[in-house]
Predict the structure.
Amino acid sequence: MDFRFTPEEDKFRQEIRDWLKKNLPKSGSGDRFSRTSDDNDANPVIYLEFAKKLASKGWVAPHWPAEYGGLGLSVIQQLIFNEEMAYASAPIGYSMIGVGWAGPTIIVYGTDEQKKEHLSRITNAETMWCQGFSEPNAGSDLAALQTRAVRDGDDYVINGQKIWTSGAHFANWMILIARTDQDAPKHKGISYFLLDMKTPGITTSPLIDMMGNHAFNEVFFDNVRVPREALLGEENRGWYMATTTLDFERSSIGGAVGGQKLLEDLKTFVAETSFNGRPIKDAPGVMGRLADCAIDVELGRILSYRVATLQARGMVPNYESSIAKLFNTDMQFHLGEAGMEIMGLYGQLEADSKWVHLHGRFQRQWMWQTGLKVGGGTTEIQKNIIAQRGLGMPRG
Ligand SMILES: Cc1cc2nc3c(=O)[nH]c(=O)nc-3n(C[C@H](O)[C@H](O)[C@H](O)COP(=O)(O)OP(=O)(O)OC[C@H]3O[C@@H](n4cnc5c(N)ncnc54)[C@H](O)[C@@H]3O)c2cc1C
């Protein structure tokens, strides 16, 4: 296979690299690996400052159509953009829900008013979004959700609870799915709402993850009254819109290159470091471990390219996205594991320890990727999709 890019695409990549050299935040890269446990809450601030600079280039959502504030990038240009952002560990994680999932769903299903109200505010980095899908008893089986939205005159009144809601503590808006018909079959009684997080009756309660971060939350709805205009698309058709959002969520391309950067840092570390007077590279198994990681990083990239080239040909990736998601989270997890094991007990130290190597990024990578094996559809669910849609096996 020839994976060379066109001269124009190479030029675009260089433009992003040059821009990042000048504009990447200085105080750490702002990524989840470089921060210590004290500055987590400052991270959305780092994102917003960076996003304002991106906005001045039209780069908050460059793959969106120009009429909605994007640059209408091709899929391959988007891949290049994502790769460069991932390689640089640019702090764009906080934009993912608005730019990657909420905005594109609004573009497909929103009214003109909803598009006008929301899309330019996302591309100008004025609003951040969260996703209120999962509930305590509805995760993989999302259609089992119980949060209700009941019609009352021109309004809906929402009661219930969401969980694992990333960024709900600073988001301005939420994409929310709630049950609007109790009697319909479970996929057919769900509606999709665009919810202003300042609406009275919403309470957000932190969930601290195993990295010590406050990234996700429980969100409670107590008689939250929203106008009819908050409904996206038709009432009771929300499940189909939610699957569109999940397709956008799973088809994210280009992130595998973040693994490339970690591998390069690990290689340099191994080449330059000795423990107790003995070069690490001479320890049993270390070189083989690096070679395994290098093969996986390359495979991860090729699987992402497969998804991107399908999209570029106007096809909708299906089980191919699941293969890429499954392989890349495993690959990134194993990179974290390899770094920790190569560093021995040093590999477990926190970023602020004076003995830490490479800012503690490998143990944070290991913990974070443990979560990513669950978020966006668990490893087991991806395997079910690959078996059923890819191999044509019957449902279990
Ligand atoms: C880092 C992170 C961020 C997240 N952010 C958000 C967010 O912003 N908004 C949001 O709405 N949700 C979010 N989530 C929640 C996420 O979508 C759910 O955790 C996920 O869908 C799994 O649901 P669950 O936790 O209820 O686990 P369950 O669905 O209860 O699964 C438990 C276990 O059973 C397995 N299992 C379940 N069903 C099957 C099956 N049919 N076949 C085989 N095995 C099965 C699962 O693989 C898993 O191992 C986030 C999760 C994480 C980890």
Notes: The CA atoms of residues 184 and 346 lie 56 Å apart. DSSP finds eleven helices and ten strands in the chain. Residues 286-312 form the longest helix (27 residues).
